[in-house]
Design a protein that fits this description.
Blueprint lengths: L2 H44 L4 H4 L7 H12 L7 E2 L9 H11 L11 H14 L9 H10 L6 H17 L2 H11 L1 E3 L2 E2 L1 H9 L8 H9 L14 H13 L3
Parallel strand pairs: 1-3
Antiparallel strand pairs: 2-3
Length: 247
Amino acid sequence: MSLFASLRYKIDILRIKRDRFLKALKYLFYFFLIIFLVDIGFIWGLLPDWNHYAKGPVQKSSFIKTYEYNRALDARLPRLRWQTVRLSKISRNAIRSVIVAEDSRFYQHQGIDTEALKDAMQYNLSNATFGYGGSTISQQMIKNMLLTPSRNPLRKWHELWLTISLEQHVKKRRILEIYLNVAEFGRGVYGIESAAKYYFNISASMLSMRQSIELAASLSSPVKHNPETRTRYFQSQVKKIRRNMGL
């Protein structure tokens, strides 16, 4: 084989490999495009009638419904404690404590706190985990009402889209009201009114600053760390919230 023929043969081989690569890349693009469109359709199916959330009684969250189902199967679980209350009937101490503990920029962002999200991504990458999510109160409300506690990236993706839609249709004050009424504060204890009565035997309107901070400190892991268990982690959360509040 002449040098020219050998060179042409190699060029033809490279061209064939290039064409195969481009063809595979095209099919891969179409595959992910189909997956993306199917997922967008799934998210669209999850979108509720926001009017039901913007006004009227606070509905049971998916977490509360799951707890009811589990207790029907296992009577050893504590009875469900869930009582709703209007935001105007919740102590300002409690509202302030929860915002500081869970989402200090709640009134500044549009549902997604990009700074907290960036910090969460850096933490997860450096620790090879999805344990830290940087979720806002709006995101947590979405997770409680419509999704699951799963920490996988796909659930987080759905949460982001639904949160953006939520913020466009429901006012901040109402989002906060719903969150405070469905948040878990202990095993079978949902909503700040139920938590105030269970732990302190008072209504949410009467919560002191100390009591409010203790309830806020339990939100990150309410079953294990709460005003009843008073674990070391719980105490560290109380100190952290107090420090962030300048107390």
